[in-house]
Design goal:
CATH architecture of the largest domain: 3-Layer(aba) Sandwich
Distance between the termini: 80 Å
Strand content: 15-25%
Number of domains: 3
Radius of gyration: 26 Å
Shape: globular
Strand order of the largest sheet: 3-4-5-2-6-7-1-9
Number of strands: 23
Largest sheet: 8 strands, mixed
CATH class of the largest domain: Alpha Beta
Helix content: 25-40%
Number of helices: 17
CATH superfamily of the largest domain: P-loop containing nucleotide triphosphate hydrolases
Structural class: alpha/beta
Length: 476
């Protein structure tokens, strides 16, 4: 007897797959294959009945495309050929509108970002993956419900899968689905924690928990516990306010030549194995900060990272560096070459070594959000990777305390977002003291006093640019 491709499903995945309820909600731990099982449902529905449409909605473009890749794998497993593939964007690099695969029997699987305006109007069976992390889950559900409830076109099914995302805020709708508080729709609810899945996955749970080293992340993302409130820091429409085709992820190398007069500020988020190192370069032009480069160093040794960053730091006016955990070693080497910036200790080099404490995150990430609000004085590239990284960062509120974190993906840990937040911190630091001429007698003696006052600033990276004959002191 020929084995079925469905034999690849583990028992807890098969249980969800076999559920024939119209409304299914699955609260699942991370890394147990919920998207794998969801893709199996989508492809089998498309295969069994011709002209069947299945809509996949995910929190971000990246996640929608990853779900589509799993559907392609299942179409191979089912020996169900793909007749056509279609990706729709307004322009290259813009937010994806949809990605579609068409099968010979005229069935389609359509992947879209999970937003009310992208799901509205589709009459299809729906799979909403990581539903609790949509920008506005309640509005998205309201937009899609009429389309799947039209009896003239046939009643459609809804499958919702996600890890928890709080009891209120964005995660409220999913919490109601799982807890049974949603009385209007009768949801068949399933919950699978990492403990329930571990035996089938050959996972060392204690080792995994020690590696996570975060009680909140463990409780929510692996034990399926609902925390208080979690919100998206930068929704897509907010990011769009700062996007510009004149900002760039790559720049002309001459920007970092010594002859360049550009006012550059760097934010460096360090990574070594699991995450990349990202160096985000901002140039101040007038009162606007323009992104000139987003350097991503993946699987790069520490000496090679030091070499790549050295000439960039040398040209920058200020650098904010992630001096946490493994970043300490590289930070020490770079600070030795370029000097530490710590005014409280009377150190005026270029490198501010930033330790990511809870209070530090509460300082930089709200400022990052404000930089995207009108009037917008920041420009970021029209780039999928940058946009997705910025969108991943979340504000988490638990027991009245708030913090910031991002889910780890194959691309990293919202590293570009953190690097930009650091670059804004570097650009926001006072440059120095500037001296303004005042007319009057005794100009020579007053100028000498001014130069003596500047003696302690001679090692400052901007010393040569800011020192002018002057007498009256004010903060720049």
């Amino acid at each position: 007897m020929t084995a079925s491709p469905l034999d690849f499903l583990l028992p807890y995945q098969r249980e969800v797959y076999n559920d024939r309820a119209r409304f299914i909600a699955w609260c699942a731990s991370r890394q147990i294959g919920k998207s794998f099982a969801g893709a199996a449902r989508a492809v089998s529905m498309a295969k069994l009945r011709e002209k069947t449409d299945v809509l996949i909605a995910s929190p971000s473009e990246r996640q929608s495309l990853e779900a589509m890749l799993k559907c392609r794998d299942w179409s191979d497993a089912f020996d169900f050929a793909i007749a056509e593939s279609i990706d729709e964007r307004d322009v290259a690099g813009a937010l994806m509108k949809s990605s579609t695969i068409v099968f010979p029997n005229k069935s389609r699987i359509i992947a879209v970002p999970g937003k009310p305006d992208t799901v509205r109007g589709f009459c299809a069976h729906v799979w909403m993956d990581e539903f609790a992390f949509f920008e506005d889950p309640a509005a998205t559900w309201k937009a899609i419900l009429p389309s799947i409830s039209n009896p003239l076109k046939g009643l459609k099914t809804a499958f919702v899968s996600s890890t928890p995302n709080g009891k209120s805020g964005r995660g409220a709708r999913f919490y109601k689905m799982i807890s049974g508080e949603d009385k209007k729709s009768q949801w068949s609810a399933h919950t699978t924690t990492i403990l329930q899945a571990a035996a089938f996955l050959n996972i060392n749970v204690e080792e995994l928990r020690a590696a996570i080293d975060d009680d909140e992340a463990w409780a929510q993302e692996f034990m399926c516990e609902f925390l208080d409130i979690i919100n998206c820091l930068l929704p897509y429409d907010i990011i769009a306010l700062a996007e510009s085709s004149d900002a760039s992820t790559h720049c002309d190398p001459t920007l970092f030549y010594s002859e360049s007069k550009a006012a550059l500020f760097l934010g460096i988020d360090f990574g070594r194995t699991n995450d990349p190192t990202v160096c985000w370069t901002l140039e101040q032009v007038g009162d606007v900060l323009w992104t000139r480069e987003v350097l991503v160093l993946r699987d790069t040794s520490t000496p090679d990272q030091q070499a790549a960053l050295h000439h960039r730091i040398k040209r920058a006016r200020r650098v904010a560096f992630d001096y946490t955990g493994p970043g300490i070693g590289l930070g020490d080497y770079l600070a030795k070459d370029h000097g530490i910036y710590d005014p409280a200790a009377h150190k005026f080099g270029k490198m501010e070594l930033c330790t990511f404490t809870a209070n530090f995150k509460r300082d930089i990430f709200p400022k990052l959000r404000r930089a995207f609000e009108a009037p917008v004085k920041l420009r970021v590239p029209v780039d999928v990777e940058c946009r997705e990284d910025l969108h991943e960062m979340q504000q988490i509120i638990r027991n009245g305390e708030y913090s910031y974190a991002a889910k780890r993906t194959a691309e990293g840990h919202s590293d570009r977002c953190t690097a930009l937040a650091l670059a804004l911190r570097a650009a926001g630091k006072p440059s120095a003291f500037v001296f303004k001429p005042r007319p009057g007698k005794g100009r020579a003696s007053q100028a000498n006093r001014a130069r003596r006052m500047m003696h302690g600033w001679r090692n400052h990276p901007e010393y040569e640019a800011i020192l002018v004959p002057s007498y009256e002191v004010y903060a720049a």
